[in-house]
């Protein structure tokens, strides 16, 4: 039996740490392994250091993963635990997403200060969110609302809300659950009117292609339904835009051997959108996502993307 501990890479935010611990606990349970077989290694990423500008402006999603991926590639880490939502659609050569933990709730939650629901906020209210998707979907529902860029860890955003900087903010329900903070939630948004980000609520594990020892270990905690749903959603995202500059939402659900996906792209002002639904065999999860993305791209035309990006 192998005795060298597995080195698990994670960011240092409370949410990232909770997710790394969840992955480790599931591995210990699945394999009956002691805690000493795992070492959690915390790294700070560029995305953690720069918190005053929107992600799209400072270079997109890779900012949360680059430092972890460098240490993975060099063998300093055996695997890294991430929010799947934060993963770029194209990974560095030699790395892959080898396991997904069972998915948490995919929906967005409202944390309202002056009213519980978005539709009940006072006229001209201010909502804080750095997500282009959330900003566009809020404007679609409430064109009078002023949306301001609001970044930082979940705790920072809740503090800014408490201080009265905004009337409300939106956060992923999954993150709030993992942090044990559901009591702040004042409303939960229906995914059909307020679609989540692709891969929202899912934790993925990244490892080196060909590292059989690690991938054998991880296979025991992979959740196939999450794997297939998120593969579809990520393929949809990749077919449309990997850059994080286009508001994109969508989610897939697996039922038996079938998979159902619905997705949308929307302009930042919330006035124009194209949506798609598709279903097929789960085996073709990624191909279904790609087809849905290509379908939207063909209908929207390139001008949809040119007009504002
Ligand atoms: N981009 C930040 C991020 N990445 C993952 C989550 C939440 C957890 C998840 O969606 O799995 C969050 C915070 C949020 O959107 O509220």
TrEMBL record:
GO terms for molecular function: hydroxymethylbilane synthase activity. SUPFAM superfamilies: Periplasmic binding protein-like II, Porphobilinogen deaminase (hydroxymethylbilane synthase), C-terminal domain. GO terms for biological process: protoporphyrinogen IX biosynthetic process. Residues 6-214 form the Porphobilinogen deaminase N-terminal domain. The keyword Transferase applies. Its EC number is 2.5.1.61. Binds 1 dipyrromethane group covalently. Residues 230-296 form the Porphobilinogen deaminase C-terminal domain. Keywords: Porphyrin biosynthesis, Transferase. Pathway: Porphyrin-containing compound metabolism; protoporphyrin-IX biosynthesis; coproporphyrinogen-III from 5-aminolevulinate: step 2/4. Tetrapolymerization of the monopyrrole PBG into the hydroxymethylbilane pre-uroporphyrinogen in several discrete steps. This is Porphobilinogen deaminase. It comes from Rhizobium mongolense.
